[in-house]
Amino acid sequence: MKTIFYKIFALLFNLCRIFKIKSGRVALLSSHNADFNDSLGAIATELEKRQGLSIIYINTMDLKVNTTNGFVKIFKSIFRAVRFFTVNAYYLATSQYVFLNDNFMPMANLNFSKKTVITQLWHAQGVFKKFGLSITQPDKIRKRELYGNKKLSYVVCSSKGVAPYYSEAFGVSIEQILPLGSPRTDYFFKHRDVGKMRALFDEDHPECVGKKLILYAPTFRDSPEDDKKLLDNFDFEWFNSELSEEYALLLRLHPQIRSSRKNNVSATDVSDYRNVNDLILLCDLLITDYSSICMDFALLNKPTCFFAFDLDDYSAQRQFYFDYESYVPGPVAKTFDELINTLKANNFHSERAEEFKKFNFDTPDGNAAKRVVEKTICDN
Predict the structure, then answer these.
(1) How confident is the model at residue 65 (pLDDT cuts 50, 70, 90)?
(2) Residue 259 has what pLDDT?
């Protein structure tokens, strides 16, 4: 079914190529973040400061048709889907500049103008788990990614050190890699009244008042059955009995885990919290396993503890660029007892964390979006 959708979009896009490229039109194509509070959003903010540009927002979430919540919502969702294949295909085909934050599978069959500058911002930062062409893929998907990536003009990454890995993952030359910093990190360099943010958070979650915040944000597993079991390996009652006087535990689940979840847990569920960047600013400490959210905590010099109870099984399915235990910027616990003892010891600072930050970010300064726009638009 997906392949049919790809072909329909490509057909309509290529038909729209009969129209001239619209000078100054910029398409922001989101296949990853429906709210654009990521690098695409940072690029949009920078573009809005400049004259002569017209910004078009294209969101693949518009393809999700609502089939259960009444006629009006069903009709609106169908309308958005039809608009995606028609109006958005036209806008994309006539854009002078395109920015995207993930793979867009129809790309393989889209005949972009040679005048169009296409920049892949990617949704992750640094290098952690292998991705893209660096991993084993079914031949059909690999071929589609290869053809799609051939349309790219540039790929942005967060540091010079990770540039070669992005070149490999996207199958593009090292000259196409722009190690200008991740635009999404600009958010953390702008002034935020974190005290006011915390007060508003506490109004909604009075159980957290007066406590430090620990965010538990595990990533999904490749098996739906493993997703269902994931929370069973975190003993929420034990955590609260040992640490609840000092810490409030927040839980943020990947959508794939939420869809298979059957557990009721004794933690503050922030899975639907709209802007994860705000959560990162509010939280004092992160517990994760293999999620790239650890990059943001490293950037802000906030501690992370890695609860990797299934490291051997996970590593057999998803490869890492470096040895996991010696690379991650914090202590690794393989049992829940080790996790509790690590949190109690409260000893997270290490030279490894500083090296991790330096390797993945160089010297971030809050101006990555400006540099990217100047290179991809102003210089073209």
Answers:
(1) confident
(2) 57
> Which pair of structure tokens corresponds to residue 51?
């004259």
**Tell me: the pLDDT tens digits for 311-345?**
999 998 889 999 999 999 999 999 999 999 999 99
- Residue 320, classified by CB atoms within 10 Å of its CB into exposed (0-12), middle (13-18) or buried (19+), is middle
